[in-house]
């Protein structure tokens, strides 16, 4: 299971208010503008924050997400009817001819299983028009971000309207080569409920991602920095060639 909290309705409902700072999406919005995207496929759209930002700018958006509970949150948001939501992953998409495909907030790392990863790259390629781009971020393994995923360093509390105070923290439970598994604990003050969610992320080297992209026919046009997390992420801009 890559990231089971997104499929739990109680956890999906607090995903946005727990971390309302989505300045990470600014770079993706800027890229949609830079590439003059009129049709975007958002892979692993979660609760639909980015898909709805795009739709609000008049862009045609398809959001695909395997976790039904997250998609329910997305659908219910104002403007939700402007997006075409698909429950699933990028391996079985209808024909789209998208200008841009995106994987925001480390979706690429959540696709930890090699078959799913290759299926995603293949599916995104097929969904792009010739000349269309796939953009996504992945943490630089050299920065060893998981070392900060301790209770002490990740402890967070938020008072969520309609829910009450929620405490949360991460704790790494295993590191096996490029795979990092961690448990997130959520404590709901309102009823004392304690929920946990286990996630596994794959940390890929830059060269490995470039090789995988080439294998599936993409040209890596650029590898950028994430402006809100300088030096910590690789932001890949990969292009489906014109012909
Ligand atoms: C950290 S969340 C990011 C959600 C959203 N992109 C955002 O910016 O808020 C990672 C998402 O990746 C999704 N995911 C996991 N495996 C996936 C797969 N094989 N294909 C597509 N999405 C996947 C999870 O369900 C989750 O919604």
TrEMBL record:
Pfam families linked: Methyltransf_25
Example GO BP: methylation
> Which part of the chain is the Methyltransferase domain?
40-132
CDD domains, alphabetized: AdoMet_MTases (cd02440)
- Taxonomy of the source species: Bacteria, Bacillati, Actinomycetota, Actinomycetes, Kitasatosporales
Name recorded for this polypeptide: Class I SAM-dependent methyltransferase
- Presence of keyword Amino-acid biosynthesis: no
| Signal peptide from the UniProt entry | none
PANTHER family, alphabetized: TRANS-ACONITATE 2-METHYLTRANSFERASE-RELATED
Q: What is its EC number?
A: 2.1.1.-
Q: Which GO terms describe its molecular function?
A: methyltransferase activity
Q: Which InterPro entries match?
A: Methyltransf_25, SAM-dependent_MTases_sf
Q: Cite the entry's keywords alphabetically.
A: Methyltransferase, Transferase
């Amino acid at each position: 299971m890559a990231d089971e909290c997104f499929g739990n309705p109680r956890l999906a409902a607090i995903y946005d208010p727990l971390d309302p700072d989505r300045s990470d999406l600014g770079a993706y919005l800027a890229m949609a503008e830079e590439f003059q995207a009129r049709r975007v496929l958002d892979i692993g759209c979660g609760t639909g924050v980015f898909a709805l930002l795009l739709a609000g700018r008049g862009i045609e958006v398809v959001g695909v997400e395997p976790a039904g509970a997250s998609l329910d949150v997305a659908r219910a948001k104002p403007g939700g009817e402007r997006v075409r939501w698909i429950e699933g992953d990028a391996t079985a998409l209808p024909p789209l001819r998208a200008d841009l495909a995106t994987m925001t907030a480390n979706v690429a790392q959540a696709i930890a299983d090699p078959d799913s990863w290759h299926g995603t790259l293949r599916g995104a390629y097929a969904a792009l028009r010739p000349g269309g781009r796939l953009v996504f971020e992945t943490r630089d393994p050299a920065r060893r971000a998981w070392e900060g995923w301790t209770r002490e360093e990740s402890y967070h509390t938020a008072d969520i309207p309609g829910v009450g105070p929620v405490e949360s923290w991460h704790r790494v439970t295993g590191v096996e080569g490029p795979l990092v598994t961690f448990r997130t604990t959520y404590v709901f003050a309102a009823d004392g409920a304690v929920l946990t969610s286990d996630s596994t992320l794959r940390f890929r080297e830059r060269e490995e991602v470039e090789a995988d992209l080439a294998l599936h026919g993409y040209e890596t046009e650029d590898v950028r920095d994430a402006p809100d997390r300088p030096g910590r992420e690789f932001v890949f801009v990969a292009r489906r060639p014109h012909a």
